[in-house]
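Exercise 7.
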Amino acid sequence: MKEKHIHQTHTKIKKSFWVRLREEKYLQAMALCGVVWMLIFNYIPMYGILIAFKKNFMITTPLFSKKFFETAWAESFGLQHFINFFHDEEFLNIMANTLSISVLKLLINFPLPIVFALMLNEVRNAWFKKFVQTISYMPHFLSWVVLGGILTTWMGESGLFNEILIKIGIMKEGIAYLAYPKYFWPIVIFSDLWKELGWNAIIYLAAISAIDQEMYEAAKIDGAGHMRQIWSITLPSIAPTITILFILQVGSLLNSNFDQMLVLWNPLNAPRSNVIDIYVYSTAMRSMRYAYASAIGLFKSVIAFILLFGANQVTKKLNDTSLF
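Solution. The predicted structure, written as C-alpha cells, is:
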C-alpha cells in the first residue's frame, strides 16, 4: 500500500512538472536561449585553454584539427609560458598597475553608488529625483570609445578642463594630462565613477524600494531621525545586495576594464597604464605570441576564481550571505 502511494505521488509530481513545463513553454524557451548562448560562448571556448600549454600556436590553426593536437607542448610540463611571464621585467609593474587601479576602484567607486542611492532615496521631489537619476546614469549608455574621445579632448592642453582652471586662476597654462603618468590613475578612477555611478545606484535603489515601509513608520514613532533610519533599517536591509556585488567586485580585481584602458592608454602614460589586459592585447595582436598571451589570460582567470571563492567564504562567515 505504501509503495503504491509513493508511486502515485511520484506520478503526480512528474505529471505536474510536465504540465507546468507546457504552461511555461515561452518562458522556458527564453531560458533555453540563454543556456545555449552560455554553452556556445562560455563553455565550448574553454577548450582553447590548451593553447596556453602549447609551445607555439598560429591563429590560422583550427583548434579541433589534427595539426593542433600535434603541436608541441611547451617546456617545463607545459608551464614555460607562465614561468616566462613571472620572470618578465614588466611583471611587477603590470601587477602593481592592475591591482592599484582595481583596489582604488573598489575603495572609491564601490561605496559611492551606495551613498548616492541613499541620498537619492531621501529626495521627496519626484521630478527632481527622476531628473538627477536620468542625468547620472545617462553616461552608462555611451561606449568608452565615445567617452574616451571626450576625455582626451577635455584633458588636452586647450581642453575644457584646462580652460576652466585657467579662468578661475588656478593655472596659468594648460597641460596634456593624459601625457603624464602621475595623472593617469585619478583620471581612470573618476572617469569610471562618472560613467557608472548612476547605473550602479539603480540596483541599490531597487533594493531600498523593496523594504517594508512599516519599519520606517515604527522607527518614526520611536523617535528615530533620518540618519538613524538609514543606519538601522536601510543599510541592514540592503546588506545582502551590497555583499553579493562586493563579492563580484573582488573577483574582478585583475580586470581593469579593458575598453577604458585601451582608449586612454598611450606610450607616454604607459608606466601607469600598462595593466594585464593591455599587456595581453599587445602580446597577442602586435607580437602574435598567442600561446604566451593565452597563458597570461589563464593566470588571470585562476587568480580571479581564487579571489571570488575567498571573498565568498569570508562574507558567508561574517554575515551569512554568499553566492554559493
